[in-house]
């Protein structure tokens, strides 16, 4: 333990975090490799480290046999007994020392490379064993340097990698900055850092919530899902195991203190916290927030497609910037979401009804034409190809042109047009009835709101000169009617000189007489 080599081994093992035996084994292997290159024999060489002297001893090992077949690896029983007496037996091994001080500089350089390689492999294996079970854990480190956009982070005694694709675009770092990230993976690669960190993984968001929200840490509130577009927006679905605990309120905190600390850590990334539900409709409704949803319908349950209808003014909010809000909601819920405004949905329904009407009209035309003697399936396909499958187009077309298209005589063409006219005539009563109802409604509206000249006639004299006199007259008449004046007062009103002013006077005096 007092030799310098042993002390060096102990110090190196402590620095690298590995066992001293690993370094000793590496030294033995290095000397063995250098010895084989120097001696260039087929002997069975073996090395041993002597902790007392601090020297690595080299031996040529030979096996005791009855008859020697390979003199470099075997020794006869008689020769062995001459050396070691009766203790030598068949299948025993005898070690013959060989010098190591003759190896030279090249052999020493080879031994050095082997030692470094073995120590490096042992160190990597030790790191893998330590951190392979810590994937998803949040760690702290210091920014050490930059390599082609990647950040090398110093974490204790080791260096880890934060790749460019795992960095948030809203963040910038300089050498010496403290950084908090989640361990995304640990590999066994022989080059470069083994541990890969991430600032964009949703696991970082979940771990931050666990650190800031006690209810999540003690599993009272559970995070059922989290999705992110790092630097812009994130969505988190939470669920409470206790009815008295509001999961969203617990994550937000008093005046938003809890969630604000997480937002600061993520450099201003917006976070939507929604309540989880086992009902997919309710879950999608919550996930679309902050937009308000009018109705949600499942289009295809097998393909997990859902249609969401929102108000016209809420459409842009529901979709989000470059589709971000609906994209995150789809990732969070696992459903394909088709967002439509109320106006789009209304137009879609109207188009469907128009299609139904067109199909019904076409079916009526086909039924009428097939009733014509001599009209067949081939003629109907010809009409479809010529876009003459509506009754109006058939009746407007001259008979001789229709005959040429059908490849028939004029009589059949005339019969086809008569059948088409019958279809048009059959549809006319419904059209006429709609027009009748429309005209009746217009007349009632006109009677309910008579024209101004009929309601307020312009009288001669002073009233005709003063255009505004008719308004007081009308007001006076209404007031007079409400006051309950008798009809015998009407002649008195017309006897005065300014007949338009008499109703006003009567209206003014009427309440007094009623009293």
Features:
disordered C terminus, 20% strand, 4-stranded mixed β-sheet, 5-stranded antiparallel β-sheet, 21 helices, 50% helix, 515 residues, alpha+beta
What does this structure look like?
The protein has 515 residues and is α+β, with helices and mostly antiparallel strands. 50% of the residues lie in helices and 20% in strands. It contains 21 helices and 15 strands. The strands form four sheets. It has a five-stranded antiparallel beta sheet with strand order 7-6-5-8-9. A hairpin with a 3-residue loop joins β10 and β11. It is elongated, with a radius of gyration of 50 Å. The protein starts with a helix and ends with a helix. The model is unreliable at 440-515 (pLDDT under 50).
Major β-sheet strand ordering: 7-6-5-8-9
Portion in helices: 40-55%
How widely separated are the two ends? 129 Å
Radius of gyration from the CA trace? 50 Å
Q: Write down the overall mean pLDDT.
A: 77
Sketch the major β-sheet: 5 strands, antiparallel
* Mass-distribution shape: elongated
Strand content: 15-25%
In terms of structural class, how would the helical and strand content be classed?
alpha+beta
**Uncertain runs with pLDDT below 50, 5 residues or more?**
440-515
Let me know the number of strands.
15
By DSSP (H or I, 4+ residues per run), the number of helices equals 21
